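Action item from last week, closing it out:
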Amino acid sequence: MAQSPRPPVMGHTLRRVVFFLLVLLTTLIALGLMASAFHSNGLSPMELLLLLLYAILFSWICISFWTAFMGFCVILFGRDRWAISRQPGASPDSAAPPRTAILMPIYNEDSERVFAGLRAIHQSLAETGQLDGFDFFILSDTRDPDVWVEEELRWQDMARALDGKGRIFYRNRPENTSRKSGNLEDFCTRWGGHYRYMIVLDADSIMKGETLVEMVRLMERHPGVALIQTPPVPVNRESLFARILQFASSIYGRMFTAGLNYWQLGESNYWGHNAIIRIQPFLDCCGLPKLPGREPFGGDILSHDFVEAALLRRAGLEVWLAYDLEGSYEEIPPTLIDYAKRDRRWCQGNLQHLRLALSHGFNALSRLHFSMGVMSYMASPLWLLFLI
């Protein structure tokens, strides 16, 4: 299969120069206005510290602002001609596309919701006429024996009702080592050789069949691409807190993801679910070691998705955000307490990226992704320090 054409390097460079120049100029203007408010007879050490904090925090705001602005322009004037879905790519082989594994890693989840979501995905795939190209894997790390038994019973019911023998599989892992990343690694080493691609879901993910088929088609046409991430849209929650977040996402979500794709292009990021991955490069490149030291900065890498994307990029493969690919959904935590519990896990994982951003071998954009993950949680205490 011939290598697919790519946007010219000059185009990549120009977009990023424009983007980061806008971020830099906006930050310098704001910094100049802040400095002008101080006394003209020099700056004290405290004022210098204040300016340093302000520069860091305002540049963080500017990155988000100009990302959203670029996305607004892309949507206003039409689709991005360099989006992965717009590139012609190579002609796929005449043979039928390879089988793809749809993975649902679970851990003590609501099994009724998990299997209802899988049935919906299965039905949507069947309506496309492409169901034979996909197998389903429920990869359980559940330790609660009652939930474990319920999962197996619901799997048997689903396989029997959908005539899924040989296509719908269930596995409970004996030991929950390395959490979700270890769960996926176990699948890849044991069954990955039977598939070219895997589509990774979360327990609360739902995807349309047309979207799944299109993801495989894009991977077939672009052999240099290792991962395509779709932007999942939050749905189905009814609490006031969740509905506010869902409304906000419907307003700015697509605009922001279009902006991310505008300047990241083939060096995008992985969000851990609702994405398709080429299995062999993932196996070759994405083994995750334990970090030295004690938690929270040592131990298992929790926010493994950022790291796996960086490792794929380090190997010279491309990672894309398909901002214009619809039909990808997720359910968010319904209450503020549930959201805080999830955020606590993410906080520990993203703070581990502080040491990874300084590790050898990663390119500049991967280091920026790590730094942005850190700033997601460092910005609040830095603002507090700034106010103090």
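Closing note: The radius of gyration is 22 Å.
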